[in-house]
Design a protein that fits this description.
About 30% of the residues lie in helices and about 40% in strands. By secondary structure, the protein is α+β, with helices and mostly antiparallel strands. It has one domain (about 30-134): Aminopeptidase, CATH 3.40.630. It has a 6-stranded mixed beta sheet. Strand 5 and strand 6 form a beta hairpin. It is globular and about 55 Å long.
Length: about 130
């Protein structure tokens, strides 16, 4: 029987596992992970930003964030559009993301995303997966 050692992940272990994951997936699919960030700065401080990951022709939006004092100003919409535009420039034709029940589902739906999955956490919160064609 195999025995596994429980360890706290560190940068080296995480990098090694990620490399092995990437190597396997690249050998068996069109895996081509490309990550990028877009930010908006005011006086040298980041006030809005987000991350896009392109893989196998699809965009995954990760970590879209806007300072509280700028929410509702339209900057989040402009940021999301910019992330999607960059993904199109890199060949993506579909987009997906997830948000949590206390976050921004309505915001993403107004941007054309539709729910395709929901996970219910035992403590009452949900993760909502959304998608759209680019």
């Amino acid at each position: 029987m195999n025995k596994f050692q429980l360890i706290e992940p560190d940068g080296k272990i995480y990098a090694e596992l990620s490399d092995r994951f990437e190597e396997y997936n690249s050998a068996h699919s069109t895996w081509n992970w490309q990550s990028y960030c877009l930010v908006h700065q005011v006086d040298g401080h980041i006030v809005a930003g987000g991350r896009g990951i392109i893989n196998m022709g699809a965009l995954e939006v990760r970590g879209l964030w806007v300072n509280d004092d700028l929410r509702g100003s339209g900057i989040g919409t402009h940021l999301l559009v910019a992330i999607e535009d960059e993904a199109r420039n890199r060949g993506a034709t579909r987009a997906m993301l997830y948000t949590f029940s206390w976050q921004a589902q309505k915001f993403y739906e107004r941007a054309g995303y539709s729910e395709f999955s929901r996970f219910n956490y035992p403590d009452g919160f949900q993760r909502i997966d959304l998608q759209k064609d680019l």
